[in-house]
Design a protein that fits this description.
Bound molecules: nicotinamide-adenine-dinucleotide, the ligand O=CCc1c[nH]cn1
Radius of gyration: 23 Å
CATH architecture of the largest domain: 3-Layer(aba) Sandwich
Helix content: 25-40%
Strand order of the largest sheet: 14-15-16-13-12-17-18
Number of helices: 16
Number of domains: 2
EC number: 1.2.1.8
InterPro entries: Ald_DH/histidinol_DH (IPR016161), Ald_DH_C (IPR016163), Ald_DH_CS_CYS (IPR016160), Ald_DH_CS_GLU (IPR029510), Ald_DH_N (IPR016162), Aldehyde_DH_dom (IPR015590), BADH (IPR011264)
CATH class of the largest domain: Alpha Beta
Family: Belongs to the aldehyde dehydrogenase family.
Structural class: alpha/beta
CATH topology of the largest domain: Aldehyde Dehydrogenase, Chain A, domain 1
GO molecular function, one term: betaine-aldehyde dehydrogenase (NAD+) activity
CATH superfamily of the largest domain: Aldehyde Dehydrogenase, Chain A, domain 1
Keywords: Metal-binding, NAD, Oxidation, Oxidoreductase, Potassium
Amino acid sequence: MPYELQPDGSHYVNGAYVEDTAGAEIPVIFSATGERIATLHAATPAIVEQALVAAEKAQAEWAKLSPRERGRVLTRAAQIMRERNHDLSVLETYDTGKPLQETLVADASSAADALEYFGGLAASLTGEHIPLGEDWVYTIREPLGVCVGIGAWNYPTQIACWKAAPALACGNAMVFKPSEATPLCALKVAEILTEAGAPAGLFNVVQGMGEVGSALVTDPRVAKVSLTGSVPTGRRVYAAAAEGMKHVTMELGGKSPMLVFDDADIDNAVGGAILGNFYSSGQVCSNGTRVFVQKGIKEAFLARLTERLKGAVIGDPLDEATSFGPMVSERQMTIVQGFIEKGAAEGARLVTGGKRIDRDGWYLEPTVFADVTDDMTIAREEIFGPVMSVLDFDTEEEAIARANATEYGLAAGVFTRDLARGHRVIGQLRAGSCFINSYNDAPVEAPFGGVKMSGVGRENSKAAIEHWSQMKSVYVRMGDVEAPF
Ligand SMILES: NC(=O)c1ccc[n+]([C@@H]2O[C@H](COP(=O)([O-])OP(=O)(O)OC[C@H]3O[C@@H](n4cnc5c(N)ncnc54)[C@H](O)[C@@H]3O)[C@@H](O)[C@H]2O)c1
Ligand SMILES: O=CCc1c[nH]cn1
């Protein structure tokens, strides 16, 4: 039974849907048609208060459960999510416009992976015993308390679960604010967690724009803030969190390099470049949007890329045959069109695409620019749309230096048949999530996150545990206390 698009309330607080129509209207638009499919409201201060009170109460109970019991709830939620994958994927497609072909394999399933992984890990999150001769110290891994998650619009289900799963496994509660552009999916995550046995108030969803996020970040009851968003928002949220000395995870933007050497398998390199630029219509944070191609294979690479792009099936994202859908919103489409105009005006060679597609909704053609130079706007700024910049290079040293000449450091990739070179180059690229002869894989077992302006902290993997828990150390004296007086 597919989900109703209009939820029973805008927010999910204390285990139930709630509404307060005094909050600003949030229209939900299906980006493939421009039609309004639901109307929600931003959280009022009263809703934010209810969510924080509920989270505080639930966290105190939740932290008293054994980690194994907590893990069982997460594992059950993962199972429910897998059983409902089709309906959740359809909802994700309505929320974001991403093709069902993608959402069926990359969204609720990735979210379920996180719930399953951290559910399984919960019982093994222990402290240690540190012998000191007669005395000893033991450590206890403790929850942080009430945590806030704030999401971007490109992966609404995945982002909610990449944050909630480790947070809850560690004994925290969460108030999650989705992006105002994609408010629907996180509500289903909340419903499923309740169904799986999470206590009321453990995972709450409140809708709204920046002001609602800001009210959560600055609340003294909040111990940690995890943001997925742009660098400018990250700067503001990090600074606000610092005022309250809160823990943070910042998953921010990027302008990641992909280096293709002369000896690369050309079809694999082209495949990586397609995945790293056109999947989700280019709206992926870790995309390799600066494709440095060694001069010896540049023309062959461009020819093969152009050929393969003809295979993109552009159309209704609800049709499983469609492999390339619309941008998330008219606003995002307009921003990307502005970058395409700048690319052409600054002298880049348009190889293919560049135009809006003549149909309802916010569709742009997959676009490739060649002869891009490092100083061009399209080579420096994050575009977050289907625009690939191809730059050429002569030597390994030159490619590494130019790849690193950016304020970002989210991801990086290298394509070469020489594995020694692959490891040598990756070792010198300043980025958090790297790939050799592949691009954009994000399994839950691998740490995900950036360096430099792309962020701090890591999601997924055992590394995430460090960011959702804190250590208490306990010194135990076995003999008498010797005091000077
Ligand atoms: N590194 C990652 O894992 C990752 C993943 C996905 C997207 N992103 C990045 O996200 C960006 C695109 O998403 P976006 O346009 O939604 O980003 P955005 O920065 O505009 O918004 C992100 C979220 O922050 C909220 N927000 C805005 N101002 C706030 C404030 N002052 N206080 C608290 N919350 C506030 C927004 O309402 C939204 O929910 C891109 O830069 C992309 O690279 C990063
Ligand atoms: O958008 C960024 C997060 C991500 C990368 N790959 C899948 N999800």
